[in-house]
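Data card: per-record layout.
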Amino acid sequence: MRFFQGNISARFKVIYGVFFLIIISSTVWLSYLSSKGGMEDQLRRTNTALLHLSQQKIEMMLHEIDTSTINFIQEPDVEFFLNGRYANDELRLNYFRILNTRFKTLMFANSNISSFYLYSLANKSLLTDATFSDESSFYDMAWHDAYVNMKGYQEWLDTRKVTEVSSGLEIEKNMITLVRTYPLISLPQFRKGAIIVNVAESTLSNLIQDVDQQRAGQTLVINDQGTVISSQNKDHLFHTIGTIPGAPKLSELKDNGYITKHTKSGSYTTFYLTSNYNGWKYISIVPDPEMNRPLEIVRNLLLTVTAGMFLLAIVIVFAVSNYTFRPLELFFRSVAGKKSVRSGDLSYMEQFFKQMISDNESLQKQMNDSLPALKWRLIMSLLMGDKTNYERMKPYFQTLGMDLYHKQFIVLVIELDRVQDNHTPRDVYLFTYALSNVADELVAGVCKGTSVELTDGRVTVIMSFETEDSQGNQIQALQVADLVKNYVAIHFKQTVTIGVGSPNPHLEGIQISYEEALNALKYKLIMGDNTVVSIDDIAGSNYNEKFYRITTLIDSVVNLIRETDKVKLRPHLDKIFGEVVASNVPPELIKQMCIQIIMKSIKVISDKGLEIKEFLDPKENIYNRIEYCVKVAELKSYMSDFLHQLIVRTEEKRLSKGHHDTIQQVLEYVEQHYMDSELSLNLLAAQFELSVPYLSKLFKETTETNFMDCLIQIRMEKSKELLLGSKHKINTIAESVGYNNVQSFIRIFKKYTGQTPGEFRENLKKGEEDKNGEYETG
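The structure for this 778-residue chain is written out next.
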């Protein structure tokens, strides 16, 4: 009671002191709570981004090694070893010296490769940069089972211990191994060998360490069985993830995300990513206290700010009360009959309230200006799968003017066609903005939804439905897509391609439907502009069997390049691309097929002695040129022009060659001594006093083939004459054409003619008998 009987100034100080304490404390605490979730999400995104960076670094290195391996295995000398085509030991040693140089070049070019071997299935032998060995006596054959059972064309094996011999010492190393088959694209029964590349596990862990220096915790790489492949702590290698403190179970690590686990030793958050390249999982285990340290810093900082603001408020309260309530005190004293000391006024309060109103209006304007950016960020979080709780997100939807149902969602991705070719960047921006507005209006007529501009020329639309009728909702989405396409064609005079995802329940389904819409949009390459592509149109395509049949057509195109047949080239390309489109082959595989055709064609032309650098533009990147094609017609046109140019330059090269006397003499010598089993390029070089490399190059430039193929052709033609004109045994004929081993003769004869010598002779006899029978009947 004595408090309420005090003067006004004292009561003001107490009441407003408590009031400011409550307001400041509540404001700071609510600010902390409201920002805590966002900061926790930011910390998780940061840790996920760092883990993704580790994954990118490692897979970039693995892709680089794989690419180097593909280029290396297509070298003629490497193919010669893998096919086991050495006629004698001298030729073998000569090629081994060449391969040794190739080995060193590859090792020098890619320092991440620790060692690698060539495995010839025909000879059951292996070749490294230091040794040649039979399969039975080679020191490392642990990869062989994986090679035999491998269904694809390449596979990265888990970390294994490899004992290498260096300078007489046995050194045990942890290796991650790439096994790639030869030929590059072949069924298991047609394989002829493989290249095995070993990468030190420490190379991966060093890449991880470079990223882990930026945050706490430890990063691991595991396989699909949960075994640790790479870690900075080598004690973890070859153990399952369940043995690591704080790690979750393997069954909990599905796709990408994070898991928080509470143990007796503390709380841990595990971030994980699954690689689409080799199936490995990249895992980062972070103690929660270390991860949440920034939150503690912010909390302590806010407490300090709270204390400072409260002290400031108390000072202001005392100052204001002394200035403001002095006139009131005099007034009340005057009313109570007490003598006034001095007068005062409250004019400053009028200015204070005016300033508050002005600040409120300014804050409201800033809020309205930032609504589009906040809406864009929220929708992107939904598309990326960061926001999945509808009830928690509903207040944010209402604040940003987004009214959505929560039963089922379908995502559309709309892309303007050829915008970069016909419009300025400003025009593209305006078209994209208008397209987003059109999509909002058309969706509103069917269901509830919203749209956002992803990039210039691309808009994403989220449609939400009140019921879980998947079929009916999908039909409505396709109808909206057709309406958007027709509206743009009529009013904008433009065309769009629209990818439509499948219906998915709850907010987490938005990310799935969005990824499906993007995948559907890629089929613009096949279906062309101004189309609506649903995920149902492309799902479940089984193209493997058809693709293997198309590889035969690829080889036929390469044969046309070899034969420089310009007339048949374009029809063959039309046939290949026709079957590709009819088979609904994915766009990525179509582009890979084109690259394979170009690589094989370039190799064929190189074998003819044509230097590709003579006509290829060094500034043009063939891979990028193919990647930038957005239509099958563009791909086919580029391939047709490129291959046609190859044939034209080959013909020009052939016409520019003159008759070479030295090669003519060499050919005559081969014609006279083909029956000599010791005949080789080395012998010819010594006979004509030329170096082996120069004679090989001269031979290829003049005859458009290599010496060994020419010698085999002469021997096979002579053997066909002997089979036709004599009754000698097969082994006698083999010796007379230069083969001491009759099995080698039979194998080469069958590869050259498609028949064994016995079958060839028997078919000739039947042909003669049938011809004689026709003469007698006539």
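Known properties of this structure: Residues 507 and 748 are 65 Å apart (CA to CA). Confidence is low (pLDDT under 50) at residues 1-6, 335-349.

See the next section for split statistics.
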